[in-house]
Amino acid sequence: MTEETAEKDYFAFYVAGLAMVIIAVIGAIKMSENEKFAPIKEQLKEESSQMNIRVISKEDYQL
Predict the structure, then answer these.
(1) What is the CA radius of gyration of the chain?
(2) Does residue 53 form part of some domain?
(3) Is residue 44 one of the residues assigned to a domain?
(4) pLDDT digits 0-9 by tens, 17-63
(5) Range of the domain at 43
(6) Using alpha carbons only, what angle is made at residue 5 by residues 17 and 11, rounded to the nearest 5 degrees?
(7) What whole-number distance in Å separates Cα of residue 55 and Cα of residue 36?
(8) Helix, strand, coil % over all residues of the chain, rounded to 5
């Protein structure tokens, strides 16, 4: 004479929710890293453009 009530299993929803939270946190961290290193990337690009010179070898100026 026991009545069993059917309980829904929300384990999959908990796992999916946790995964979404973890992905959101990792995405936020990556975005902050991009903002933090933006000036350094700009400086590297500027230095690269300043160093973009042609090196003349001996064969280039010999006739």
Answers:
(1) 30
(2) yes
(3) yes
(4) 999 999 999 999 988 887 788 888 888 888 887 777 766 677 766 65
(5) 19-61
(6) 15
(7) 35
(8) 70, 0, 30
**Backbone torsion region of residue 25, taken as left when φ is above 0, otherwise alpha when ψ lies between -120 and 50, otherwise beta:** alpha
Q: How many helices (H) and strands (E) does the chain have?
A: 2, 0
CA-wise closest residue to 51 among 43, 63, 59: 43
Question: Does residue 50 sit within a domain?
Answer: yes
**Number of independent structural domains in the chain:** 1
> What is the pTM assigned to this prediction?
0.51
Residue 54 maps to a domain:
yes
Q: Read off the DSSP letter of residue 56.
A: P
Amino acid at 58: K
